[in-house]
What does this fold into?
Amino acid sequence: EMQLVESGGGLVQPGGSLRLSCAGSGFTFSRYNLNWARQAPGKGLEWVSTISGLGTPSYPPAVKGRFTVSRDTDKKMLYLQMNNLKPEDTAVYYCGIGPFNQTTKRGQGTQVTVSS
It folds into this structure.
């Protein structure tokens, strides 16, 4: 069974950094696109980043230049390094298997709060 478990969220001041982790099991990392998405209070799910099976990253304009997605296929870990965080980055962050609009499995999420 495919499973994903996120960790690393927390409270950070504006301008700060956090690194989210996502532990995967039950599937081969390199065979799938993996994505990060987020959901802010009262809003829909928003795409944050994708890393392809070949390791190519992609980002929407809202986070490009501030967030970096990476993975360790041997450890089955997905990461999201978030720098220069803004209050509007406050959300529950989820990792998922597949392209964002075709996600087949998501984790339970980890809360990120950016506030002074």
Remarks:
- The mean pLDDT is 96.
- The two ends are 40 Å apart (CA to CA).
